[in-house]
């Protein structure tokens, strides 16, 4: 486009650089002062859009209609308004069957679609089916136990009838009315006499907050109304046939290869794929599912990375949604978070959403006397409350929370809010004695080419931006090799003694001094560089090594140096369970483990406790380990917004923060004062929640 785009969209959208890039022109809010070369735009077919369309007709300026795409949001827009897609239509809009749209023109043209485009469509549909992706993605992956029991109790097939909210513009513009829904249900009953008829209504309808077209009076004979907030495809997969007026669920049913009966005139009707009770004479071409999908979701929609706000392709957005599905999440009506400090309460809720329901912070003492409902869950920090967990009823799921692997700029003990946490309902990644969700994923997941490509790209980004877990220390050039005079340089990272990762992940060597002695015994000729843990150096945690051990086992001690500089100046890393071992693997360095860290046992390290890791069972490429550990396992949050983010966006933000001088070299008086200020701010935040 040339000139400007004038539109009444919100000021936030008008200022969004991604929207401007997608539209290919500067965006100005409002439509006054239009001049030659400008384009007027309206959102959907709302009244203001109709006024602007009329103005465009009067002035001879081009007009475009904007609308959300078919893969629309990470969750529900009421929870997170960042959109994933945008439609720009110069003729009409897809849900207005009274006039042609660009989508209809693409499908009606009769042109053959390139094989490469159809291949993309088939792959995308397979991904959507596997992960049950939709326009809104807040719903549970599975149907509720009540819905499943209802379906299983019926001996015949299940037929799905999809209700819509009264007043939905797509109903009237799609050739339907309130009477259409009555006729649709009657037809479904008559045409499927032996079937269980499930009427999918909006949850707000049964709650009385919104009006639909069916009410409790429809629950007669073999008809049941359900308001299950699950992924639409979870219901569609169980259906023998799907009846719709104009709902997008009909399109998703086609993706799922289900028979679809249309009582309205939605965009996917009229192409030979649906049973159309209102034929559309204007639509003359015959299309298959791949062609329909390619036209609608690849040719017609434009996509945005919600985290980086950059234009992307459909596949990129699907990758983000798949990762969201893979990230472990609590599903409960009430989640009891036990013994969390007040400052942690200010951010824990951001990581538990969506799915955790109401989060209640309780003490260990209070929890011991509580009675739990079937849909309650417990959240605890790491392995701190093991004795309490052992006393809980077996039906109550327990989720353990810990820092992720890309945490923040600065130390957690300095009260820096984490940008990444893991929530694990099976174990926890640093406990090598039991299986965690991360280990299960690494052991069983079939990594796709796109998974591996994302893992590879994320590795390259982390290396190019020189990031680590905490991003602390002073950067500078180190030259261990010159001092080593030909001896192999081994970096030994210290850890916080008594830390859970040592107690549960390194039963044989669990102290920094013992590790140094073991490394010296294994490598008597090596030049050993010991780097104490930043929390030990800052005085926040224990882990100092006796001077006599340092003197006999370490050739050099580096306190304030940046860990990445240390890695780049070394040839090998020996560690108990430190994440420095993982960061060394990213750089292709040999790593020897003396414990059972999450990255050991996959063929990427030399493991002194290999016999204890045989259950991990298979070798993996580095890209798979990175994808699992940094994409599929943790949940990321950007601050101060508190919204979800991606590891790619977080790495960019961490690099920018580090460049602004926010790295932590040492803990002096100013650092302590700033820490107290942060603590006060977070305490206030927690109290206000």
Average pLDDT taken over every residue = 90
Our count of helices gives 28
Radius of gyration: 29 Å
SSE-based structural type:
alpha/beta
Q: What is the helix fraction of residues, given as a range?
A: 25-40%
Strand content: 15-25%
Low-confidence stretches: 662-667
Largest sheet: 7 strands, mixed
The shape, in one word, is globular
Write a structural description:
This protein is α/β, with parallel strands linked by helices and 689 residues long. Among the domains are: 135-286, Rossmann fold (3-Layer(aba) Sandwich); 326-444, Rossmann fold; 449-496 and 509-592 and 621-669, no CATH class. Helix content is 37%, strand content 15%. The strands form four sheets. It has a seven-stranded mixed sheet. A seven-stranded mixed sheet has the order 15-14-16-17-18-25-26. It has a six-stranded parallel sheet with strand order 8-7-6-9-10-11, with helices on both faces. The protein is globular and about 90 Å long. 46% of the residues are buried. This is Capsular polysaccharide biosynthesis protein. It comes from Gimibacter soli.
Features:
seven-stranded mixed sheet, Rossmann fold, alpha/beta, single chain, 689 residues, 28 helices
């Amino acid at each position: 486009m040339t000139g400007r785009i004038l539109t009444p969209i919100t000021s936030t959208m008008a200022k969004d650089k991604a929207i401007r890039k997608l539209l290919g022109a500067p965006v100005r809010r409002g439509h006054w002062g239009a001049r030659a070369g400008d384009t007027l735009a309206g959102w959907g077919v709302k009244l203001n859009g109709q006024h602007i369309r009329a103005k465009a007709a009067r002035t001879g300026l081009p007009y475009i209609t904007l609308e959300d795409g078919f893969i629309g949001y990470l969750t529900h827009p009421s929870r997170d308004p960042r959109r994933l897609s945008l439609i720009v239509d110069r003729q009409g809009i897809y849900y207005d069957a009274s006039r042609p749209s660009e989508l209809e023109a693409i499908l009606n043209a009769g042109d053959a679609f390139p094989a490469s485009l159809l291949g993309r469509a088939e792959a995308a549909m397979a991904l959507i089916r596997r992960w049950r992706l939709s326009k809104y993605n807040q719903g549970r992956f599975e149907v509720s136990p009540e819905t499943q029991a209802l379906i299983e109790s019926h001996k015949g097939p299940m037929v799905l009838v999809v209700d819509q909210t009264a007043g939905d513009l797509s109903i009237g513009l799609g050739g339907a009315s309130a009477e259409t829904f009555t006729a649709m249900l009657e037809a479904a009953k008559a045409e499927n006499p032996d079937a269980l008829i499930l009427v999918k209504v909006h949850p707000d309808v049964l709650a009385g907050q919104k009006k639909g077209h069916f009410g409790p009076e429809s629950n007669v004979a073999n008809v049941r109304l359900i308001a299950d907030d699950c992924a639409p495809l979870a219901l569609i997969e169980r259906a023998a046939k799907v009846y719709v007026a104009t709902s997008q669920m009909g399109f998703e049913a086609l993706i799922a290869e289900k028979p679809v009966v249309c009582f309205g005139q939605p965009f996917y009707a009229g192409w030979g794929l649906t049973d159309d009770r209102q034929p559309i004479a204007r639509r003359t071409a015959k299309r298959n599912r791949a062609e329909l999908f390619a036209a609608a979701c690849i040719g017609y929609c434009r996509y945005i990375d919600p985290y980086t706000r950059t234009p992307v392709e459909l596949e990129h957005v699907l990758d983000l949604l798949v990762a969201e599905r893979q990230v472990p999440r609590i599903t409960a009506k009430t989640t009891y978070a036990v013994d969390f400090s007040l400052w942690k309460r200010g951010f824990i809720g951001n990581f538990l959403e969506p799915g955790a329901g109401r989060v209640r912070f309780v003490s260990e003492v209070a929890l011991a006397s509580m009675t739990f409902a079937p849909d309650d869950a417990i959240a605890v920090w790491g392995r701190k409350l093991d004795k309490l967990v052992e006393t809980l009823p077996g039906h109550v799921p327990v989720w353990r929370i810990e820092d992720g692997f890309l945490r923040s700029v600065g130390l957690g003990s300095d009260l820096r809010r984490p940008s990444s946490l893991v929530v694990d309902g099976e174990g926890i990644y640093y406990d090598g004695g039991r299986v965690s969700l991360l280990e299960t994923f690494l052991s069983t997941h079939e990594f796709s080419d796109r998974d591996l490509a994302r893992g590879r790209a994320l590795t390259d980004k982390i290396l190019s931006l020189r990031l680590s877990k905490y991003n602390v220390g002073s950067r500078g050039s180190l030259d261990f090799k010159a001092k080593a005079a030909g001896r192999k340089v081994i970096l030994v990272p210290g850890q916080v003694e008594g830390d859970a990762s040592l107690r549960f992940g390194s039963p044989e060597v669990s102290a920094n001094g013992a590790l140094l002695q073991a490394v010296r015994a294994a490598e008597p000729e090596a030049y050993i560089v010991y780097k104490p843990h930043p929390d030990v150096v800052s005085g926040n945690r224990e882990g100092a090594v006796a001077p006599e051990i340092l003197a006999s086992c370490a050739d050099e001690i580096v306190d304030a140096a940046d860990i990445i500089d240390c890695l780049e100046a070394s040839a090998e890393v020996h560690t108990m369970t430190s994440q420095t071992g993982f960061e060394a693997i990213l750089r292709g360095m040999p790593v020897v483990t003396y414990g059972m860290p999450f990255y050991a046992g996959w063929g990427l390290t030399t493991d002194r406790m290999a016999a204890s890791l045989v259950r991990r069972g298979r070798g993996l490429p580095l890209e798979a380990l990175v994808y699992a550990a940094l994409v599929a396992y943790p949940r990321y949050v950007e601050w101060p917004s508190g919204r979800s983010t991606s590891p790619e966006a977080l790495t960019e933000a961490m690099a920018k923060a580090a460049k602004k001088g926010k790295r932590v070299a040492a803990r002096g008086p100013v650092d302590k004062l700033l820490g107290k200020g942060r603590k006060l701010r977070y305490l206030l935040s927690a109290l206000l929640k």
